[in-house]
Structure formats: structure tokens, C-alpha cells
Amino acid sequence: MTLESELREEQVSHLGLSGFSKASSGAAVRDVLAQLRAERHNVCLITDANDKLVGIFTDRDVLRRVVNAPETLDAPIDDVMTKAPVTIRPDLSAAAALRAMDENHFRNLPAVDEHGAILGDMTHQSIINFLASRYPVEILNRPPDPERFPRKQEGG
Amino acid sequence: MSTATTEIQLTRKDFVSDQTVRWCPGCGDYAILAQMQKVMPELGIPKEKIVFVSGIGCSSRFPYYMDTYGVHSIHGRAPTLATGLAVSNPELCIWVITGDGDGLSIGGNHLIHAIRRNVNLNIILFNNRIYGLTKGQYSPTSRQGKVTKSSPMGSIEQPLNPIALALAAEATFVARSIDAHTQHLEETLRRAAEHPGTSFVEIYQNCVIFNPNEWDGLSDRSVRDDNILYLEHGMPMVFGKDRNKGIRLNGFTPEVVELGNGIEEGDLLIHDATSTQLAFILSSMEYPQFPAPMGVIRDVRKPDYVSQLMGQVQTAQAQRGVGDLNKLYRAADLWTVNEREDVAAKVAGELSLDMDEEYVDNLDKADMDATTQVQDQLIESSIADLNPHVPITIDVQSSLERATRQLNLHNIGCLLVTDARDQLVGIFTERDVLMKVAGLVDDLSDAKVADYMTPSPVTIKPDQPIAQALHLMSVHGFRHLPLVDEQGHPTGIISSRDVVAYLNQAVN
Known about the structure:
Chain A is an alpha+beta fold. Chain A has helices spanning 3-9, 29-39, 59-66, 94-104, 124-134; strands at residues 21-24, 43-47, 53-58, 82-83, 109-112, 118-122. Chain B has an 8-stranded mixed β-sheet, with helices on both faces.
């Protein structure tokens, strides 16, 4: 079984999706930055008054649109976010989701169910975490530094 | 007239072996050996029906000195061996000789399980509260604060209470005696021999070399009667040289009282060897806070293990006939591993060096679990197979303005920061921009990347397996891993996207 065939059998919702922050449309960029830092997330999903997803704001947006333009700090987040982001259904196969990410060069794919509830953010890290728990012997249970050897024999 | 021709007339001498007794001069073991040899002929059991089983230790030399059958067995396993012996030959009179090391350290488990099964054994535990054979280290019964070779500042361990341990294992016979009090010891050994089921006897025994003063107040003839409570079933607990003291119960707690002044024998505890509760109270009474209880603490009758086991065997045989072990063994789940034919052929011909390889190849061809393709990739593909990107580097002295411009210019998320000798000293990512820079640093041209980068990043080498990259990314959450050569110069960079893409496409 290849990774692709394994991911075909996994639903996005089973992957262990990445965490995200959530802010309301109209929030000041400065406040969203503070929230991301406090919650230690790279991604903020922006919702409207009905709690529907209207935008996504990531560290890449910070780099491209905010850091060299201090005047944006007090603007509404809507000015610098990516509007109407592509989303996926949580029951989509992980393989299809990954294909969508690669074809469009997305790094984040919010998973939204049929009622509009946001369940999580699919990233490449989600796949890596899936692999780590799928193959713990090969991935997790490794010496953290494989090139370190004890200088002295243990014991007696 | 003498019709009792089968009457066995043995004497003490019949139980003395021809071996030289090798204990230290003055050892309490001699006294115990002498009393045992004295009791034996009085039991009326022929010598060939008597077995002494021991483990390892000074006391465990005991079987050599008894002219009976004997087994000097495995450390701590004397009760186990004896249990097997009792089951295989229920007619035997079996004595287990052990010590506080053999029976309570290494053999603690074997001891309690033999006791709780109520196998017909007489277990005699010589307690000298020290490791004697190994020359004086503290044992599981050594008192707290005891200075020994292995506890130079005093033992910090809570000692085991052998009597309480035996009671907790539901021993049917529990008694205590002391080597120096020969009459008491003799009587206690006899009572133990007479009891059907497991008899457990703790003997306070003096190690004259390594723990000579342990039992001073109890062995010294002049004071011992003031310090020992001799137990007799149905009798009030009176003690003292002048029999003027006694044990009274105050709530759940025993207390020492002087007789007279309104306290009479009728106020004292009456010993009842069938009472579990009283046995535990007695086990908790430690000299010198209390007189040491000696004698039979508990004596109750329960079905013994071997007769019950044999009863079940007989019932099964009556219902289903005598079993055939060989038949049972060959009845199911038995198969023969044949020598591989082609291997034999090759050995007969020329010596084949590729035998192992061929075997592995055959394995590979077989219906191998398909998931191993991913596992193989994880281990067998190296970081180099990912074709790592050429890294974009930036000098550590650069400004934040330059760093963010470089990130945007190359449309990348990660810069490798190097010093004047082109050594990797840090990593600066878009996450750093979010967490430390945006909205926090007013003048990017005035700030140095050195102050905002992540210094000394975790790196990876081209020849390491992909699994190592996944390990670092999953455990630490890294999105990027820099590659460096032996000199520490950056040679490449991989991202989590690269790893996933490689694994996803490698086979297709």
C-alpha cells in the first residue's frame, strides 16, 4: 500500500487537523496578530456575523502584506486576508485533499462541514502527524540524534 | 512379645551426617541444627521419607548436615522446589530451610505462594537480619538505621515483618522461636512438624560475626524471660521472670501492664491460636516496645494443597480414564519444520554464498503486507532523494528589512542565516515574522536578523533516512529542516511539503 492509497482510505476529518485561531470580520490586523501570537497559531480563519468562513489570514500574508506596511496594522483584517478561501468537506478523502493542495499550491485547506461549521485546518503537517502515528516504530521511536554515541560503556 | 517389629527406633545420631559443619564458631545455626537432629527421631518418620530443601545462604547449608535426603537448590526457590516434591510424593516429610535473604529478598514471592497454597511443608526461616554469607550487608529484615557494609549511614528501608507476611499469605501455622532457647525451639519445631499444611517458623538466629548483638535482650538467659512473651493457646498472656506482667488490650492496641494493684490475670488477653485478628496484633508487637511473642501464634486447619489436587486428579481419572501425556502432547498444534529441499541440494553441491540473499528475495516476492512500501520508503529513501532546495542564505549582520525582502523576493518561508565563515548559525522564517516582528518592530532597517532568528536550528544530513525528517517534523512541529555539510555550511533545505510530496509520488 502506498501513501497515496492509504490517504485515499482516510477521511480528512481523521487526520488530526492543525489548530487555528478564529477572528471576526472587521477585527483590526493588530488585534489578530496579537491573538495569533497568544494562541501560537500560524493561521487565523475569519468569520462573518453568522459564523461563516469568509477569509483566511496566515503568516505568509503577514510577510507579504503587513510587515513592510505598518499602516495596515490598524486596518480591518479583511484588507489583508485571502477572501473566500477554498474549503473541503471533512469526509473528503485525504488523498483528494492533498491533491487539491498541491495543484493549487495551498498550504492550508480549512475543513468545513455541510452546516458551515469549521472543523480544522488541513496542512502538510496533518499528513506528517498521520504518518507518525501510523508508523510509530519508524518515525516516533527514533533516537532524537542518531549520530550521537555514548563515549563510555554504560555500567560497570 | 515384641510384635511391633515395624516400630522405628531412631536416635539423634542417625540424623547426623558425615559432613564437616562449616559455619562460623558461635553461629546460631549450630543450635538450630542440634535441635532439629534432636526432634527428628521423635517424629517416628523413617529417614528415607524426610527431605531438607534449601536455597542459598549460610542457613542453606543445612541439608548437608542432616543425614536425610536433601536438596541445596536455587537461590530463593526452595519453597517452589519443595512444592513440586510434595505434589510428586505426598508421603514425604519436607522441610524448607531458608533465611531472611534467601526467603524474603530473592525468594519473597516463592515463599508467600507456597504459604498461601498450604502445601504440606515445614518452612523454617532463620532470621539474623543481615546477609551473612556475603559478609554483612543489610537484609530485608534489618532495622531502620542499621549500619552495615551496604548501609554505612544506616539503613533507610522499612524492614519486613516475616510473621505478618506469613499471616497475610493466610498461613495455617505461624510460630516464632529463638536459637538460644533450646527447649522452646525444640517444642516449636515439633509443633511445626505435627501440623498438616504449611508450617511457617521464624527463628531469631544470631550471626555472631556480622550482627552479633541483634537479639541481645532475647537471647541473654538472665533477662530473656522479662522480654519474651511465651504464648500458650487458651492461657492468659503473662510474662516476666516473676510472671508479674501481662498484655492487655486497650481498644485495638495491646499494652503492657503490671499485675497487682487491681489488675488480675482475668483482665489480660487470652491467647487464641485460631484467631486471625489476634495473630495480627501479636505480629505487630515488636521487641523492645513489647515483649517478643514466641511460640505458636496461629494454628488452624485447612485442606492442604496436595490432597485437594490429587482429589481433583482422581475425580478426573474416574470420569475420563487415565490420561496419556504423550497422546495429549501430540493431539493438536504440533507440526514438523522440514529442512528446505533446495537448501539441502545446494549444500550437497557447492557451498552457496547467496543463500541468505535468495531467501530474502523469496520473502520479497511473497504476498508481503503492502503497507511496507511506505515503511520501506521511510527507512530506505534518504534526505538526498528529496532533491533538497538550494538554500537562500542571509548574513547574520543583515537587517530585518533585508531579511523580509529576501523572503518575499524568493517567495519562500525560510532563510538560513550564516556567519562570516558561511556557517549556519540560525534560521529565520515567516513564523518568526508573525511571532516577533510584525507590529512589534517599528524600524526594520534598524533591527538585525540576528536578534529575531531561531539560533542553532536542528539540522539534518543528506544520508539520513526520510523517517528522520518526519520524526523531527512530527515531534517538534518543524516546517523546515536545513541541511549542513561536515563543516557546518548550509547545503540545502527541505520542507514538510517536500517530504509529503515525495512520499505521495515516489511509487506512482
